[in-house]
Every structure is written in C-alpha cells, then in structure tokens.
Amino acid sequence: MTAVLSEPGCRVARVTTTTDRGDVRPEEMEQYRRELTGYCYRMLGSSFEADDAVQETLVRAWRKADGFEGRSAVRSWLYRIATNVCLDMLRSSKRRARPVDLGPSSLVEEFTRSTRSEYEWVGPVPDERVLPTTADPAELTAARESIKLAFVAALQHLPARQRSVLILREVLAWQASEVAELLETSVASVNSALQRARATLAARDVAQTEPVTADQQVLLTRYLTAFESYDIPALVSLLHEDAVLSMPPYELWLQGRDQLAEWFVGPGSGCRGSRLLPVTGNGLHGFGSYRPDGQGGHAPWGIQLLEFRGDRIAAQHSFIDAKLFPEFGLPTHLAPGQPWPAPAPSAS
Where do the domains of the chain lie, and which CATH numbers do they carry? Predict the structure, then answer.
C-alpha cells in the first residue's frame, strides 16, 4: 500500500492512495474539501490558513482512518477533526479584522505606509473555493452572505467555540444535537452559546450586501474601463458619495468620494496604466489588478472586491498581496503584448 499525503502548508495537495483504509475511501474524504474550506475560512478569516487547516484535517483523518468505526457519518467525523484543528490554530493567533474595524477613517495626507502583518487581517477567498455547487438560488445567496467580509470579520469577535456553534447552526444548518455531539457537550450548552453568539453579532450590525443587478453589471464594465484608462473623473463618478477604500496590509482607510479622488491622483497614482482581470471573491465581484512592471509587462498588485449600493460603488476592498493571485486562478505576470480577457465578470 502507498499513500501520498502532503503535509500542511501545501495548498494544492489532494488525498490520494492506492488502497482504502478501514471503511473510509480517500475520494470520500476529498469530496468534502470545498465545504470544509468554507467552514475553516469562516472560523479563521484567512484563505491561506483555511487551506492549511483543511489539509491538516485530511492528513489527520487519513492517519486515523483505520480506527474509524462508522458510528457517525464521514462528513461529521471530518467536521469534528476540522473543528479541533481550527480551535488549535486559534489558540495561538490574534483576532483578525478589517481596516474599518480598527478606528475612524483617515485623510489622504495622513497616509504613512504603516502596515500590519497579514496575520492580523481578514483576507479574501475565491468564491469557487468555498461556495456550494448548488442549483438552489436561495441556498447560494445565503452561502454568499456567509462569506462576506463584514460577516467573517464579525465572526472573529466570537470566542472560538461560539464561532463554531454559530457557523454550524446558522450557516450549515446543523441540528443542536449534532453540534453537541461534535463538540462533546450538551444541547443546552450549544443553545446557550448560540444565543450569546447571536447577541454579539447583532451588536456588530452586519448589514447584508446587495446582489449584483444588470445595471450594476454595466457599472463593473464602466469601472474596468475607467480604471484601466485611469480616467479619474469617470472613475469618481461611479462612486457613492460616502464610498470606502481599504487596502490591507495598510492600516489607513478612506471614506468619501473627494478623499478617494485625492488618493487616486496622489499616493494611488502608481496604479496608472494598470490592467484588470475579473474575479469573484467573498460573494463579491471584482478584479485582480496588475501594475506596470517598468519593462512593458504587468506585475500582480492586489485583489479588488467591490460592493454596490444602488447604482454606485459603495466600497473598494483592495488586498495588496501578490500571493493571492494563484489562489484566485490568476497569472503571476502579464508579459508585454500578452492578451488578457477584458469583459467584466458575468452577473450571478
């Protein structure tokens, strides 16, 4: 018998083997990778850490497969392992947040290039990595809401076990008895934890975002054209009057159309000449932004995710991290003269 299992840290590894162990087949575990990634992302607030957690889950599951007695479903068994992995990781990590959670907005002239570690920010996640492959529009809409940046950031304010209870009960629709069995506690304890978690989230006032309409789809195309041509008046005209711009790992965030206009012609002017490729992440549409590399090509700069309110852009969340591009299936460089797809993402 041979088994190929990558250790945590390898984000593309798959569980493969030539034989089964016990009553668990490798492909049976592997089929849960997407939903486990979504669960771990909501728990941890980072797609990178979610990948590592899922890989560690599958490694542990494989090692314990001979002892799996089938008293619970494989799915429940994997979620139990994933929960323990996440709880272990959360014991040694700081609470992740968004720039808007850390203090009031700043002015452009206050920009000092002050940054924080990537381990302190809620990061983006590609939709295709975590959303269910369901044909039910209502289920898909609910799943999108549960990976929105504001919701994931609010989850980070919950103690780890409350976080797990709320995700399992409210997002994944587990029964209280199932959660109690997974956490090895009582139904009363689960219900109490859920009540406290709901109260905390209610105090955070997490607003739902709007699904992209046909008119907003046109807005995406106009944004792409304005940004690539760096037509600042056209770009600013697409923004809501109190639009927000955040740019982790930078601590600063800006609010207001005038401030964003000042940013684009000031510290943000290095984006002149950029090229954009469409992405979807955290239930939002957006783009991978490539800046000129000085040699005729374009280098990866950041992932932009856009929120809409009515017929204007309400927020641009830019994540300045080239490591995100492979996660979103984007090329790591655009060579001089290399063609790239220009249309905006399709509406969903």
Answer: 3-95+148-204 (1.20.140.160), 97-147+209-348 (3.10.450.50)
